[in-house]
Amino acid sequence: MELFVPGRICLFGAHSDWAGGYRRINSAVGRGYTIITGTNQGLYARVRTRPGRLVFTTRDAAGDTVTLDEPLEPRRLLELAEAGGFFSYVAGVAYQVLTHYHVDGIEIDNYRTDLPVRKGLSSSAAVCVLTARAFNRAYDLKMTVRGEMEMAYRGEITTPSRCGRMDQGCAYGERPIEMRFDGDALDVDELHVARPLHYVIVDLKAKKDTVRILADLNRAYPFADDAVQEAVQAYLGAENKQIVAAARSAIADGDVERLGQLMTEAQRAFDAAMQPACPEELTSPVLHRLLDAAGGGDAHLSKLVLGAKGVGSQGDGTAQLLVTDEAAQDAAIALLEREYGMEGLALTVPATKRVRKAVITAAGHGTRLFPMTKVIRKEFMPVRDASGRMVPLIVAHILDAVAAGIEEIALIIQPEEEAAFRRLLHEPVSPEVFAKLSRENQERAREIEAAGARVTLLPQPEQRGLGHAVLSAREWIGDEPFLLVLGDHYFVAGESVENCYRQVVAAYGRLDGALIGLAETPETEIGRFGTVSGTWEGCVDADSLGTGQDCPHPLLTVSELKEKPSLDYAREYLRVDGLGDDRYFTVFGLYVLPPRLLAILAETEAAGEYEHGELQLTGALDRLRAEAGMRGVPVHGRKVDIGVPEEFAGIW
């Protein structure tokens, strides 16, 4: 399999990760808060199992191939880890994995690396995460992203390196996250990015002593002995918390000008509090000459720059400039090289991804509602929509999708029903009937007609399972994520919350990969549904499942997806923290899926891997989970199976 792990850069809150760790000794120390993001550059690798061996191949600075090839033996791995050097990171993580899991050997070919080393971008952490992820994916260890990050951290501190817990945040990929540190506890929350952020990472071509910086600053902990040390604790605690919170809001609001101002403010506060604790390294004349130039001392550079600050441990190592756009990145990099002899690296944090397309399955035969479905399709059954009006089920789906920001909708239908769907969605009401409608119903007719204009009908000649239905839309979907909806269900949102479609789409906006909506379900019903287990990410109140305003869309990293499990199996393997002993999370019927799922379905079909004559979706989803990870979000609402008469009657 192919893997990519980026580097990471700390945008705000450097040093607060280890500082917040001191709360386990002194509760008066402030919690640590950082915002980091993955880089455009990183490590690319091909991975496969290799019985009994740890093999890691990479290329050195000259482009020559160098290889670690050792037996997968704990004592030897620990010896290699403690010896230091590049391969110590690989050995350290392998040692930790072997200690905690039953695994065999692995071969990792790091065939390409475009991540600069020793530039504050955590290249060593990327190696550790790559190794942890390789074992996880190759052996399906069901580690969450948090689990991979923790395993990578344990592996790196097995070596002579003394990294902070922040470094391993590159496990979350190229999207920005906020990390919060409270003693040994760590919370991670993925951030919404309203507008692309354009940075230039600058190699100052000078020197700094990171070991000295960390040693001097650590003297302020766990208890401050003088005013200088009190200032260090105040900055890395309450002051940093305030700056990070403001930066998070600016990122979410797309206020790049304010974000640039916060960078300058953060650097000024850092200098005031931290320079006296380590003046030999943190006076950093080279860094401050560049910051002064970017702040107005160089008219050509300053017109490109919105804000600037140091990177990582600070000192004369690396700087980050927030610039206006891609053209400004190119211009700043050229100017820095020409006028200052410094190298610049473009880093763009993209805006949060949007979901434009939805696929709604509507090609079933409705056999459970026979003989009613002999005269009316299940998708045309009447339901009350969000406004309380009676509409056909499929219209309720379409209106909810449009309200969630979906621009294009595909309906998978039976060929013989195409005319009926066209009459409902694509043909306007006749002038005679329209004239007889109330003004309110005339508005509703226009709304349905406008929504119907977004709909493409995709006839499915034969029905061979849900996976087959989704695969039939492959050409229409193209190469972008899509919302998948089970059209024979109805999704009723809870009181005072957004519609179920919008809940799932909003949650997806913070991440990559696959997302499934989750329903809290009593154990007496789990034999009817796909059921998941996993671990919470980010801000989650286990009692309320994150329904508060601070975290409306908590995420669960899915470690297992089991189709219609037995109760004994569910009790043993499918528990989730925060749910009662008799409650589980089942698949809700709303999914946001990457185009990779379609390739998996096509491969499954080509291999003839049908279950009971059908191409199933659940198996493809579980393979996607194993390959690339999967998240779940609890949906605050109720899923009604229209094919079950008791449930259908219950919505009235």
Notes on the structure:
With 652 residues, the protein is an alpha+beta fold. Helix content is 38%, strand content 26%. It is built from 23 helices and 24 strands. The strands form 5 sheets. Strands 1, 2, 3, 4, 5, 6 and 7 form a 7-stranded mixed β-sheet that branches. It has a 5-stranded mixed beta barrel with strand order 19-22-20-21-23. A 4-stranded antiparallel β-sheet has the order 9-10-8-11. It is globular. The two termini are 50 Å apart.
What number of domains? 3
Number of strands: 24
**Please, how many helices?**
23
> Sheet with the most strands?
7 strands, mixed
Distance between the termini: 50 Å
By CATH reckoning, the class of the largest domain would read Alpha Beta
Chain-averaged pLDDT: 86
CATH superfamily of the largest domain, please?
Spore Coat Polysaccharide Biosynthesis Protein SpsA, Chain A
Unreliable residue stretches: 539-553
CATH-derived architecture of the largest domain: Alpha-Beta Complex
Class derived from helix and strand content: alpha+beta
Rg: 27 Å
Please state the overall shape, judged from the principal axes of the Cα atoms: globular
CATH structural fold name of the largest domain: Spore Coat Polysaccharide Biosynthesis Protein SpsA, Chain A
Our estimate of the beta-strand percent is: 25-35%
Helix content: 25-40%
